[in-house]
Amino acid sequence: MHRVVVTGIGVLSAAGPNTAAFWDTVRNGRSAIGPITIIPTDLLTVKVGAEVRDFDPKQHFESKRLGMLDRFSQFALVAAREAIAQSGLTFEGELSERTASIIGSGVGGQSTLDDSYWQIYGEKRTRVHPFTIPKLMINAATSHITMEHGIRGPAFAVASACSSAGHAIGQAFQMVRTGMVDAAVTGGTEATITVGTMKGWEALRVMASDTCRPFSKGRTGMVLGEGAAIFVLETLEAAKARGAAILAEIAGFGMSSDAMDITLPDPNGSARAVRGALRDAGLNLEDVSYINAHGTGTAANDVTETRALRMVFGDHADKLMVSSTKSMIGHALGGAGALELAATILGMRDNVVSPTANYTERDPDCDLDYVPNEAREAVVNAALSNSFAFGGLNAVIAVKRFAG
Amino acid sequence: MASVEEEIYDIIAEKAAVDRSKLHRDARMEDLEIESLDVVEIIFAVEEKFDIHVPYNANDSELEFETIGDVVEAVEKLVGDKEKAG
Questions:
Q1: Helix, strand, coil proportions of chain A in percent (round to 5)?
Q2: Mutate: best of A46, A205, A331, A365, partner B, most B CBs <10 A
Q3: Cα dihedral angle (A256, A302, A158, A383), rounded to 10 degrees?
Q4: Has the ipTM of the complex gone over 0.85?
Q5: Distance from CA of A382 to the nearest CA of B (A)
Q6: First and final CA of chain B: distance in angstroms?
Q7: d(C-alpha A378, C-alpha A359), whole Å
Q8: Residue A264 touches chain B, beta carbons under 8 Å
Q9: A33-48, pLDDT tens digit by residue?
Q10: Going by DSSP bridges, is the β-strand pair A34-35/A48-49 parallel, antiparallel, or unpaired?
Q11: Does residue A392 belong to the interface with chain B, where contact is any CB pair within 8 Å?
C-alpha cells in the first residue's frame, strides 16, 4: 500500500478562473452567487445561480476544437491544465500508461443537450450538429483530458449525482494506493445552468430564490452552481523522489448507500460513509477538527448531515468546525465534491478554515459550529470532505495535512 | 362540474395513494402520511390542472401546507385571482 498525495490542483468556478481566485473568494467568505446571465431567464422562477462568469472558451481553445467541447468539458480541461502544470508531471513513457484519469460529472453535456433539443422541438430544424453525441456524453471530459495530456492508463467517468466527484477521486485514490497506477488526474466537472435543467430543479421545489444559507435558520434551499476542480494524485515516494511540492495527503475514503429514498437523505447512511472514511484513514475522532460539509442549504440535508455528524463524533462534534463551500459557489452537483476538496486542502495548507457564508441565524436543529461568515485561523491536521447525493449515494474523503 | 376542492381531492388521492374518504379540509398532511415529495407532485398536478403557479418551496416553512384545507384554500384563491384577471 502506498501513501497518496496531492501535487496539483486546478479550479474553475463561480469564484474565479483559477485556484488562486477561488481560494481568495472562499477564504474570505465572499459569496459568488448572483443573477443568472448565461441563459435567458424569462421562463425561470429562480433567477439566481453561481455561474462561471466571463468565461471565454476562445481564450482557451482553438475554434476548430471547440465544436467538440461542451461547457462541462471545457471547464474540466482548463482546470486539468492548471493542476497538471502545478504538479510538474508530464505523461511520457511509462508514466503515460501508469496514470489514470477519472472524472466525475452528474449529467455531462447539458448545454449541448438543451441546445440541440431546442433546435429540433422549438425551431423545428431537421438536423443537429454532427458532434452532438460525443459532446454530451458524460465521459467526454475524461476523454479530452486523456487526449490533451497523453494519459493512457485506466480512464472513465463516474456519475453519482452530487457525489460524482467524491466517488471519482475516491476511486483514483484507491488505484494509486494499491499500486494499480502511479498517478491519477481526477476530480469533477459540471455545467448545468441551462433553461431545461433549471426548470427541472425548480419543479423539485428545493431551490432558494435569494441565496444559499447552509445550516442557517431561514434557509430556503440550494442554488445551482457550476465549475470544475481537478487534482493530480501520486504516490508519496514518487512525489518525494522528484522533489514535488506536496499539498496534502489523501488518507482515506468512505462510501455507503442509504437504500432508502431517491431524494431524502438518511443520517444512518451518511454516518456510515463518514465512519468508513475515518476507519480507512486510521483516524480517531479527536484527530479530526474540520468537516467540509455537503451543506446544500436545503431543510432536509442540513439537519440530516448535522445528525449524522453527531451520531459519528458524539461529544467531539461540538469541537468540530463544519462549513459549507456551497454558500459561496453554489451546488456544482457532480463537480461539487472536487471544488469542496480543493477548499479543504487549500485551507489546511494555509491554516485557514473557510466559513459558511450567508449565515444569518442559528437553527435549533443545526447546532454545530458552522464557522459563520468569517474564516478562522486554525491548524487542521485531519479533515473530511462530505458528499451525499440524490439517490442516497454517499462519498467521504479523509485528508491529512502533509507534514513531511 | 366538479368543484376545485373535489378536483384537488382527486389529485391528492391519486398522487399520494390516500383513501379519498379520508380527505377533508382539517386532515393533516402528516397524519395522512403525505411526504414532501408527494406534495411536490401534487402541487405540480394542481398547477397543470388549473393553469396556475403555486409558490411552494419544500425548504420554506412559511410556504408549507399543514392541512389539506391549506392546499384547497391556496388553490381556490389562485384560481379566483386568475378568473378576476382573466
A1: 40, 25, 40
A2: A205
A3: -80
A4: no
A5: 32
A6: 19
A7: 20
A8: yes
A9: 999 999 999 999 999 9
A10: antiparallel
A11: no
